Amino acid sequence: MYDVNEFWQWFVDNNEQLTMLGDLDEKQQQALLEELQNRLESYCPGLTYEMGEPTPSGRTLTFSAEGDSDLFRYVLDLTDNAPDLDWWEFVAFKQPKGTDLKVTFDKYRFETKQMYFMQLESEEEPDILGVRVALPNPVDDDDDQLVGVYVTLEAMIGEFDCSTLIGYLDTCAIPADPHEAGFRPLDDFPEFVEWFKRQRDK
Question: Is residue 1 pLDDT above 80, yes or no?
Answer without folding.
Answer: no
